[in-house]
């Protein structure tokens, strides 16, 4: 007997359970709102839908602009080694200075392609700069300039698929940055805390949270499994996946906070190195 012919379990007669047609939303060809198929910025929305993309654009311009200055033009004050301190800017860690490096080439440019690639291909950052700079999409129910969407299947957008490989490199960088944290808390050969120590710790902590909340990491540790109990080490993998999933809920916040803290740590170390401000020892 088919589902259509099966009787309702609570009835006494021949009543047949109604067959529901699954719905996927607006039928093809039906009215989908003014913005669908219209010009750039056309919308029926009455809220300030443009405010968040504008705020994201300003934030990215300021923070990425400073990062470019620090990495390209600010190589002279990337480290503060004085009075027992050893603070290294996160933009320059690990510090590489091979003999073949020309003087015009900043050491930061030898290593930044990996963390920069990780952020540039990040799922959240893609959304932010696609919306803020490419205006594609500008917002929900807002008209776009481009009508034919091909996904990230053509150059240069196909390079976004390298995100997982940049993640592997980012995990190595996290370990290196924590070594810098240990150095930042050693002053005059013993454990101590100064403002510089706090800035370095904040930078590395937020970078770690941003990295471990990554969507690709969540998929790697368990997102591709349908049955944890059927997999090898299913219990630990489920626990790890649960932890990464909880971090992943705040991935957007970690993305912004880590970018701000990295720039703040570099600025603090730079100002100390230039003797603009003193590094205050707390204890």
Task: Report on this structure.
It is a single chain. The chain has 283 residues and is mostly helical. The chain has a domain at 51-213 and 250-273. Helix content is 46%, strand content 3%. It contains eight helices and four strands; from the N terminus they run H-E-E-H-H-H-E-E-H-H-H-H. It has helices at residues 51-73, 113-120, 123-134, 163-184, 195-212, 215-223, 234-248, 251-273, and strands spanning 79-80, 87-88, 186-187, 190-191. The strands form two sheets. A two-stranded antiparallel ribbon has the order 1-2. The radius of gyration is 26 Å and the shape is globular. It starts with 50 loop residues before the first helix and ends in a 10-residue tail after the last helix. The relative contact order is 0.13. Mean pLDDT is 84; it is low at 1-24.
Distance between the termini: 79 Å
Q: So how many helices?
A: 8
Total DSSP E strands: 4
Helix-strand sequence: HEEHHHEEHHHH
The portion of residues assigned to helices is: 40-55%
Mean pLDDT: 84
Rg of Cα set: 26 Å
Short description:
This protein has helices spanning 51-73, 113-120, 123-134, 163-184, 195-212, 215-223, 234-248, 251-273; strands spanning 79-80, 87-88, 186-187, 190-191. It is mainly alpha-helical and 283 residues long.
Features:
two-stranded antiparallel sheet, 283 residues, 8 helices, two-stranded antiparallel ribbon, mainly alpha, disordered N terminus
What is the topology?
Layout: H1 51-73, E1 79-80, E2 87-88, H2 113-120, H3 123-134, H4 163-184, E3 186-187, E4 190-191, H5 195-212, H6 215-223, H7 234-248, H8 251-273
Antiparallel strand pairs: 1-2, 3-4
Helix pairs in contact: 1-3, 1-8, 2-4, 4-5, 5-8, 6-7
């Amino acid at each position: 007997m088919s589902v259509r012919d099966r009787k309702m379990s609570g009835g006494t007669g021949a009543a047949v359970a109604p067959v529901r047609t699954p719905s996927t939303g607006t039928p093809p060809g039906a009215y989908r709102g003014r913005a669908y198929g219209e010009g750039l910025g056309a919308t029926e929305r009455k809220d300030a839908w443009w405010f968040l993309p504008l705020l994201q654009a300003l934030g990215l311009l300021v923070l990425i602009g400073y990062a470019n200055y620090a990495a390209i033009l600010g190589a002279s004050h990337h480290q503060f080694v004085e009075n027992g301190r050893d603070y290294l800017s996160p933009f320059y860690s690990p510090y590489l200075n091979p003999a073949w490096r020309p003087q015009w080439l900043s050491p930061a440019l030898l290593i930044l392609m990996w963390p920069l690639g990780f952020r540039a291909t990040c799922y959240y950052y893609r959304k932010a700069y696609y919306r803020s700079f490419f205006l594609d999409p500008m917002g929900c129910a807002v008209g776009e300039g481009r009508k034919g969407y091909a996904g990230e299947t053509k150059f240069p957008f196909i390079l976004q698929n390298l995100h997982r490989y940049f993640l592997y490199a980012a995990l190595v960088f996290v370990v290196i940055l924590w070594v810098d944290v240990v150095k930042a808390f050693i002053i005059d050969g013993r454990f101590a805390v100064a403002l510089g120590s706090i800035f370095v710790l904040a930078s590395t902590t937020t970078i770690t949270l941003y990295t471990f909340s990554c969507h690709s990491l969540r998929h790697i540790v368990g997102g591709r499994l349908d049955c944890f109990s059927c997999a090898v080490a299913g219990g630990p993998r489920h626990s790890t996946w649960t932890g990464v999933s909880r971090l992943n809920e705040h991935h957007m916040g970690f993305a912004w906070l880590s970018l701000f803290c990295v720039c703040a740590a570099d600025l603090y170390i730079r100002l100390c190195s230039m003797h603009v401000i003193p590094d205050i020892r707390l204890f």
